[in-house]
């Protein structure tokens, strides 16, 4: 038997269809106003018909055709300090829009809140029908694909985090968002790049691929062929719908676990080569300089951060708080997340909120009683390779420098920065960045 709820849902759907087909928004609005807003099947119709339960504003047909969040929800992305007005971008200026991690309650980043990074050029407005992807270079058969052709090939969906190399605890920003906001986690859908490369026939002496974007300036980035043949996606889908314009519409690379610069957006070409390009993306800040010369870094190490309580927030009461955070690793699954309530002297194992997927944001929680004292909270994680997230001192030592030099900005150029992030809680409940 069909429940009342199900039949109302069906009615709504039909009403929406009728409304769209006939452009009959006023009729649909009238029907909607006659409907109780909630709970009539459980006898809650009295509350539902109270004046407080008025329909939200705006055109109901539009609202149903493509959902919008409650008007009471205000979370937005911040534009990072190193960005300029997107209307006036030119080479050398970045567009950096941050994921508001402090407001996100799950492990998937809502698409409209996913960070955006673009290298100085306005995200292009691409017509998907006119768009082409070319696979050429050291291949037997250069190929050109339309979007429709790509969509007909065998598809793969994976939940994968992306993180920019500029997400650096040692930048010592005040808030979680400013320090960690250049990461997001989405379900990406597309074709494995290996499918296209096999179709084109990669020559035996090829070693690299170079992805190229469609924006003015055509960003390029070199990625080892071994990775390209492994798990790189040519993605057209992001969380179940088309990739958003700023995130690479209609096509982008998703290179799991590598710093996000590899995940070339607005992808128009894959060139197979025997060596990497030595362009801006390979020689600039993305490649650490060591005594041996320029080094490339690829898979990102294990990293985590407490998202509540975090820098910029305030604890409003003593007693119970649930410590919450995110952990991820370019090396695979997060196998353990730990929290320290005493500035790193002792560690407690946190609860991982499954599924802990490989190369994906993984939530962790730990119940906590705050007695109103000053405390320093930290998290660290371990990945399935057994690698443990380092302290800033350990991280700095690895790159031949000290914490102080990293905090002063005189030791830049290291690879992925995954140092442990401490948040201090003061007696008045305010939370601050306590990195030293
Ligand atoms: N074509 C192109 N691809 C690009 C970029 C760009 O500027 N142009 N920025 C890169 C950088 S630095 C990052 S961190 C990621 C960010 O992906 P997102 O904007 O979808 O979060 O895209 C990468 N891909
Ligand atoms: Mo980036």
Q: Specify the helix fraction band.
A: 10-25%
Looking at the overall shape, the CATH architecture of the largest domain is: Alpha-Beta Complex
How many individual helices? 11
The rounded distance between the terminal residues' Cα atoms is 64 Å
Order of neighbouring strands in the sheet with most strands: 5-4-13-8-9
Number of domains: 3
Report on the architecture of this protein.
By secondary structure, this protein is an alpha+beta fold. The protein folds into 3 domains: 1-32; 132-294, Alpha-Beta Complex (Sulfite Oxidase, Chain A, domain 2), CATH 3.90.420; 303-433, Immunoglobulin-like, CATH 2.60.40.650. It is 18% helix and 28% strand. The protein is built from 11 helices and 24 strands. It has helices spanning 4-22, 25-34, 45-48, 60-65, 147-152, 176-180, 193-200, 225-228, 280-283, 392-398, 403-408, and strands at residues 78-79, 95-98, 116-118, 132-137, 143-146, 156-163, 183-192, 208-213, 220-224, 233-238, 241-242, 252-254, 267-273, 289-290, 293-294, 303-308, 319-328, 334-340, 348-349, 351-353, 362-370, 375-383, 422-425, 431-433. Helix 1 runs antiparallel to helix 2. The protein is globular, with a radius of gyration of 24 Å. The termini are far apart. 38% of the residues are buried. Residues 114-119, 162, 164, 184, 213, 215, 219, 247-248, 260-261, 263-266 line the site of ligand MTE. Molybdenum atom is lined by residues 117, 164-166, 260-261.
